[in-house]
Amino acid sequence: MNIIVCVKHVPETAEAELKIDASGKGIEKTGLVYDINEWDDYALEEAVRIKEKVGGTVTAITVGPSDADSTLRKCLARGADSAIRLTDPKFEGSDAYAIAKILHSVIKNMQYDLILTGLQAGDDGYAAVSQILAEMLGIPHATMVKKLELDNGSAKVNRELEGGLEEVLEIKLPALFAVSTGINEPRYVSIMGIRKAMQKEIKVLGLADTGLTEADVGEQGSWLKIEKLYVPPVEKQAELIKGSPEEVAEKIAEILKARGLI
Fold first, then answer.
1. pLDDT at 232 over 90
2. Structural domain total, the chain
3. More exposed terminus of the chain, fewer Cβ within 10 Å: N or C?
4. Is the confidence at residue 204, as pLDDT, over 80?
5. Contact by Cβ (8 Å): 34, 10
6. Phi (first) and psi of residue 109, to 5 degrees
7. Residue 95 in domain
8. Which residues lie closer than 8 Å to 231 by C-beta, 6 or more apart?
9. Residue 121: CB partners within 8 Å, gap ≥ 6?
10. Whose CA is closest to 92, among 214, 209, 194?
11. Is residue 227 in a domain?
12. Is residue 23 part of a domain?
């Protein structure tokens, strides 16, 4: 079973105070800590578990700068056999469609039975790369996958729907699945795993290696372009109305009348 896992190197912003950069199209990245995207972490773990169960290989692939090597090293330390980083200044500004094209240019020439990705990226939240990539490759796909079982050239997947519902599908391989958090419990990286990962080569490919042109990537090759980022101004504040039910009702009626709503 040859498995490809698409991962992304993203900033951890949960506890960070974010500021818009000088361009007005991005955030200040100085001082931010980067790590593997949360959803991709689960995809990687699922790939390694499948390899441990049925054999095969796991290849981690990312689109990003040289700093993304730390995320790929983590993938190698956790059980991936090889890693590929696609990097080029021309990739800057690529949206989900352009990123999918970059990944497709390399993956289409690889041998694989299964491709796993995270449901979405924590920095942009597009949640679109996986579906676009699968369509480009011409293989079936499913998103929101919270359970995955393989059997004789097919996979049974449980998809998480709204309202606590689940959808169970049987899909022939090769296929691509975008997994949700909670599908498993990602393992810790061992010291031995880290040492082995440092000795493994990360294959680096640029635009010239993909067969794409400058018009295919970056803002030129994208469907979406960020015009401006801003922090929404606080224009109104909530007013808490206190008192008895009758007093609260009377106050609400006065507000509605004052605003011409009744």
1. no
2. 1
3. C
4. yes
5. yes
6. -100, 5
7. yes
8. 20
9. 8, 10, 37, 39, 40, 127, 129
10. 214
11. no
12. yes
| Contact criterion met (CB below 8 Å) for 120 and 6 | no
DSSP 245: H
Give the CA diameter of the chain.
Answer: 74
The residue behind tokens 């991709």 is 40
CA-angle at 140, arms to 133 and 76, nearest 5°: 55
Instruction: Look up residue 196 and give its amino acid.
Output: K
What is d(CA 99, CA 132) in angstroms, rounded to the nearest whole number? 9
In DSSP terms, 125 is beta-bridged to none
C-alpha closest to that of 44 among 63, 59, 33: 59
CB 193 within 8 A of CB 77: yes
Q: Find all residues with CB under 8 Å of 190, minimum gap 6, and list them.
A: 77
**Residues 184, 147 contacting (CB under 8 angstroms):** no
| Dihedral, CA of residue 256, residue 257, residue 259 and residue 262, to nearest 10 | 80
Confidence class for position 17, pLDDT limits 50, 70, 90: confident
Strand partners for 11: 34
Q: Please work out, in degrees rounded to the nearest 5, the angle formed at the alpha carbon of residue 124 by the alpha carbons of 127 and 32.
A: 140
Domain that holds residue 212: 2-216
Taking residues 96-119, report their average pLDDT: 97
Alpha carbon distance 209, 225 (integer Å)? 25
Residue with tokens 């990286």: 189
Return the CATH number at 40: 3.40.50.620
This prediction's pTM = 0.86
Backbone angles phi, psi at 53, to 5 degrees: -85, -45
